[in-house]
Structure formats: C-alpha cells, structure tokens
What does this fold into?
Amino acid sequence: MEILPDRQKQVRQTGANPGQDSAAPIACDKHSAAGSVSQRACVFCGSRVVLYPIADALHLVHGPIGCAAYTWDIRGALSSGPQLHRNSFSTDLREMDVIYGGEKKLYHALIELIDAHQPEAAFVYSTCIVGVIGDDVAAVCKKVTAEKGIPVLPVASEGFKGTKKDGYRAACEAVYRLVGTGSTEDVGPHSINILGDFNLAGETWIIRDYYKRMGIDVVACITGDARIADIRRAHGAKLNLVQCSGSMTALGKKMEADYGIPQKRVSYFGIEDMAAALYEAARFFPDDPTILERAEDLVREEVEAITPQLREYRRRLEGRKAAIYVGGAFKAFSLVRALKLLGMQTAVVGSQTGGPEDYVKLQEICDPGTIVVDDSNPLELAQFCLEADVDLFIGGVKERPIAYKLGIAFCDHNHERKEPLAGFVGMLNFAREVCNSVNSPVWQFAPRKRRKAVPAQHQEIAV
Amino acid sequence: MKTLPLQGPGLDDDDLDEPQFHHAASTRNACKLCTPLGACLAFRGIEGCIPFLHGSQGCSTYIRRYLISHFREPIDIAASNFSEESAIFGGKSNFEAGIANVVKGYKPQMIGVATTCLSETIGEDMKRLFHEYLSKHWEEGHPEMVHVSTPSYTGTHIDGFHAAVRSVAQALAVGGERTRRVNLFPGMVSAADLRHLKEILRDFGLAYTLLPDYSESMDGPSWAEYQKLPEGGTPLDAIRALGSSQVSITFGRTLAGKAGAADDLEKKFSIPHRPLGLPIGIRESDAFFQLLETLSGRTTPRAHAQERGRFIDAMIDGHKYIAGKKAVLYGEEDMVIGLASFLCEIGVEPVVVASGGRSGALIASLRAAVPELPAACQVLSGVDFTDITDAATEAKPDFLLGNSKGYSLARKLKIPLVRVGFPIHDRVGAQRIVHLGYRGAQHLFDAVVNTLMEHKQENSHVGYSYL
It folds into this structure.
C-alpha cells in the first residue's frame, strides 16, 4: 500500500500484526501532514460547526469573506423558531482593514447587526488573519456587550491555531460563559442536558421526545435547536448526556467541575446505542423506577415498530462490505454496530478527530483485517476502498465523489443530511438509505463494477 | 434592514469611480466568494495540475466542499497546513514538506500555488520559497510550479480565477514562429460551456489553446480506474504555445483596461488581443462568431448557423409568454452583463442587475453592452444578498436569474428562480448548463419560458393543460 511516510503511523490493519495492536497505538491528535489533502478543516470550522445551530444568536465571522461565505446555511441544523443562524454575516475585511486593523469595522458591524436582528447573544469568530493583525476582539465584544446589553462572546477560532478539535474547545469556552447566568428555579429533579446533538434533520427533536416520554425534562440542547435562554440555565440539569464526544467533552467537563453535574457519553445512532442512551439516563434517576419502566416500554415499542422493515433491509444487505470515514470516532463506533445489525461488515473505518482510546476501541469492535485510519485523505481512502472492495461508503460531502467515481454506493452521514439518522426511526432511515444506494440498478453500468463482473474470457469482446 | 452610514477609515478600501451601493459595515449573505476558490478552479483546468494553498488547511477543505457541491466531482486541493509556528516564523518548512508530499502522492505535471490571506499577511516571500525549494529538489521531470497571489481580502473569486490564468500564462508561455492558433481565455464558465467553445473552435477549423479547460477534469465520466488527478485540462504544451498564437480572445467586458493574460502576451509577444463580452445571448454571441469568421476565413459552419436560426425561431414562438416580465439578476459581473443583454433581446426587463464584485466597471460596461437597458434598471455592484433583497422587494420582479444562493430570496418573494452560473448547490446538472453561444441562448430561453409557464400553471385555479 502506498502511504506517505509522514502518515504511516496513522494507519493500521486490525489483526495484521497480532499482539501489536494495543502495544503501538495509532498515532493521532496530530496536525495534518502538509500537502496531504486532509479531509479535516480548521479551528474555525470546529467552532463554527458546534455553535452554528444556536438559532437566536448572531454569528459574525471576523475576517475576509471566504470563511463566512463557505459556512452560509451549511448545516441541516433545524430550528423550531428563529432562523437567524442560517445567515452568513462577515466583517468582510479588506486590504485597508488588514493594514489599519479591523476593530472599528467589527464594532460597527456588531452594532448594526444587533440593531437589525435583535439577537439574544452574539458570537464573534476570529479567523486566521485576525490572529495575525492582532485585533483585540475581546475588547470590542466587551464594549458592545455594555452598549447593547446582550452577551457578545469572542470565539478564539483562528484557523491555524491547532486542529478542528481546538475549535470545538473554543466553542465550548464561548458557550460556557453563558452557562450559569439564568435562573434554574423551575428545573425539575429529573432533568438532563443533551450535549453534542445538533438537530440535523430534526434529530434532537426525536431524542428529546423519547426522554420526555420517559418522564425526563430536557433543560438545554447544546446546540441542537438551542436558545440562549436554555443555555443560561443548563447548570440546573442533574445530568449531561454527551454525544459527539469530541465536540462537547470540554463543556461537559467544565460543568462537572464547577456545578458537579456528571456526564455520560452516549450515542443516538443505531438501536443498541440509542437504547443504551435511554437506559443510561433512566438508571441515573433510581428514585423514580417508573422512568426505567417507561424507557423499557419505549424501546420495546419502537424496536417492534421497525423490526419487520429492518429485517427486509437486512435480507438485501447481508454480507456487503462498507467503508466509514466520519468526523468523530464515537459516531464511527455506532456505525460499525449499526452495520452489523444490517448484516454488513466494516472493512475500512476512520475519523478526522479520533483520540488514542477511540482507535483502540475501534480496533476491538471491528473484524480482523479492518483498516483503521486517522486523518485520512482522498488518495488513501480510494486505495482502501478498492483494496477492500467495499460496496458502500459512509461519509460526508468530500468523500461522496470518491465513492461515486469508483462505482461505490454512498450514505451521507454528515452535517448536511436532510434525513434524520438518529433514534429508532433514524435507524430505519439509515437502513433505507443504505439499501437504496447499495441495491440501485445504476452500479451495473459503472465501468469499474462492470469490468469486474465480466468473466475473464469475455473481457476482450466486452471492451 | 437599517444600516449605519459609513464611518471612519477601514470601512471601504476601494477608490473606484462607481458609486457605493453597499452601505453596511458588515457583509450579510455575500454575493461573492474568496479569491483562492477561483484560483483553485482555474488550476484544475490545467492538465495534471494540482492546486496547492499556502496557508491554513481549512481553506482547502472549505473550497473543496463548495466546488464538490456544485460540480459533484472530486477535487483535491493540497495545503501547506499552517500551524501557529508557521504563522509566526513563516511557512517555509510546511511549504517544502507539503510540496514534496504532493509530488510524491500525486505525481502532478504542475503545482498551482495560491497564497491565502494568512500567508499574504505574514508576508511570505514566495519567490524565495520557490527558489529555495527548487534549488534543492529540482530534477528533470519535476512538475512545473506556478504561484498566484490571492489574498482573500482583495477582490472576489473571479479575480482569483483571472489572476491564476494570468500567472500560468506568464510563467509558461514561450515565443516562437507565429501559428494560426487562437488563444481563448473564457473566464469562469460551466464545464458544458467549455465543451461547446471547443466544439465551435474545432468546427471553424481553428487550432486553439483554451485556458483553463475543466470541461473534463470537473465533469468527467465514471471511472474504470482510480485517477489521482482526474483527466482533462489544458495541456501544458498548449499553454507554452500561447506565445506563438495569432490572436488572444478574452471574454469579459469588465476586464478591459485591466492587465490580464492576453495583455501580457500582447506586450511580450506582440499577439493582438481581442476582448469580447461573455457570448451570452444573440448579439454577444454574434460578435464572437464574427471574430471567428475573420480569424478562420470561413463562414459560420452550417450546424451553428442552424442553431442560431432555430434560436430566433424559438424566441418568436415563445415571446408572448414572457413579454413585459421583470427579472432580477445577480452573480459575477461579466455573467450578469451577458444575462442582461440576453434578457433584453427576448423581451424581459431587467429591473435589478447586481453583483458582489466591485471591478468599478460594471455600470459602464453594462450600459455599453446593452444600450436599450431601461434607465430605471438598478445596477448594483459590491452588494450582498441583503442589499439585493431590499432592491428586489421594491422592484417586484416576476422571477430571479442567478445562482442557487438566491433561493431564499425567491422563496420570500414567492417567485421562481432560474438557476444559472455558479454555484448551484440545490440541483443536479449545474456543470452541464450551457450559457454560451446560440446553444446557450436556446437553453436559457427554454429555461426562462418554461419556468414562467410552470409558475403560471401552478398558480392558476383553472389548471390549464394547454399553454
């Protein structure tokens, strides 16, 4: 296999060197190798993607136009009310701003946008250039906070100052400044926060409804369909359920340290993980055993409702092979398990931002021979897919054309998705999407598949 | 929305002849993208060329994502992936490691290096970086390396596109005995447009260099084998031959008077430059075909004359469905000039013509290209979608003509949007839209008329089945 020397320690095949898997863990948490065409983005991206769904806040990108333009209405994060987050606001810095500084422009931009849209708070994202020209963004934010009476929060997201994960941290820090500023008077005893779900295609609503049916109050969803007022009172919740561990762990840890709110890592993808997430919350409130009972009833009902259809999908997918390349490793765990439920095998799995323990776990839950990779790139991914001869690729926008060009079915599991894949109903949607793509008649015409299908003696005629 | 008057320095850096139409300090839903995007696309229109951004990793990822969502094709853009140390001490080591990795991984024929706002602001000396890298690594067969300066705090994606084309021509064109070859710099048009241009040139029997040409690299067939850099693009030899051609043609009226690739070739190799408008609609296309007749010494080939004739016939057949309709159009400056010209030809009144670009030449170029454009038509340059929304709400158009980013406006005004140009992120086939020439005019006409017919049908209580 042809892999850049700088990258070789970030790729592993399970069971290939027995006994060494855990001894020499996959290298990760590294800055991407220069010139490697990483599928990752930058610090700014990490912050933007996490804070984006906060619907009643103003999101102002301080920098030249690109960073704001490329993140305009980019996520499928739905709001049940305000739609302010779906706009793209930028200070659109020009040459003279770069020379003389952009503080004045930032100030005027904030004032006019706050006047026009009356947001509950504002986030100001620093981009690369701000870190170089030295604008005092925090000072401008402080001034505007005083003048306008709403929190104006700087997000230290200069693109080059680390990786996407550092962007998550910067976002958590900004959000954390809101936590604890609201009243928790009416927060009930059985209450949780949902951290790290972004209400893509309405997923937070599905999850929230499950907890509600169990008798658990959700105080704040951070940041799916989030409102500033909810975040302010999030410290009243008794438990934080943290999904997408990479993006929200920092917030969960802070809330644990300062408010004594324990956190549990959960995932809402796939039947097993979804059920586990509900039981986790139910067991946290042993004083009311009816919560667990209701959870059990709920799981039973929901699973029964989807089982016949899932069985049919499984029949049509059994034995197929898949590649997974997603942002966070926790999502990858769930996908491996969800594929198993459909009778499919994961042959390639990787993530942009997984940590050392994540990769150990991935190697454990995958079959021997699975390729596990950190911070991969198009050349590697294409190679892995061809060598493992996968039938399906699960990834995002940047992975999609790689799969399609090679005649491989694809499932969008990124932040643009329009179909909810979380919850029990999400498992059904996932199975349907996978089944529809894998079993589409179009692949019979794809040149790569076609050539493979033609018996050797007929190849010359076929060509 | 209410906007503040401009105050203090730093709110506007330009010193242009055109009046200001954007009065807010912020840009709200931009009608433009940043310069490196244009450069990356132009570089992918060169055979075996990989774009390389000297700066942060995010730029490459965002631009890839944006382009992929339009073309639905892979595009790999490498980056030197600046870290904090690079921003402080310079990106030399990242640059060298990045180029070496790209050479090894992609085996390109050329690396198109564009400098982002970050590397431009810290003052990277690219000449020196190139020199130091090549003095260590150059060997026979090493890929060509071309640098273009694309700080995103100046200009728009279109400026980055033209700048990349210019840098490539400057770096690679060589002089030689004059040939009958035609240089064509088409600007940022669709993949289908590029294919159509090549077909036209071939039918006139003209040898050509079309730069760039992403008609295949960004719109190729399904693969039998993995292609590290998708096939297609202007061959490097054709770029070298730019210096010995008989003429250069550049599309884009707002480019006149600005130094571009063709102007450099004129200065250095005395190759005459014939600037034209983007050939959208009948008059601008006629100007192009007439020039080709002169250059080739042939009359317009029958197939194209027939296309022109059929288009005029179709215009007549359909003219009453759109008579007196009003349109708001927006997009890149040269694109909207062509579209405005086309709309006036078919009897649609442009009421707002808007662009996020600020070349300073939009109004004059548009009025020159389309003398019949009503004086009441608002021509707005340097605006964002909030400005366009304000103008459109007042102008009460029947439809919008532009890229998919106007969708929320169309939804708000409850009018249809005819999607053209770049980007189109909510439909398939964006790369297959033909805008140029008689064929393009035909396609645009059918799209406009059918959209308005459908709108009428859907909004009628009668449910007409004949229209």
The first helix of chain A runs from residue 43 to 51. Residues 318-418 of chain A form a domain with the Rossmann fold fold (CATH 3.40.50.1980). Confidence is low (pLDDT under 50) at residues 456-463 of chain A. The radius of gyration of chain A is 23 Å.
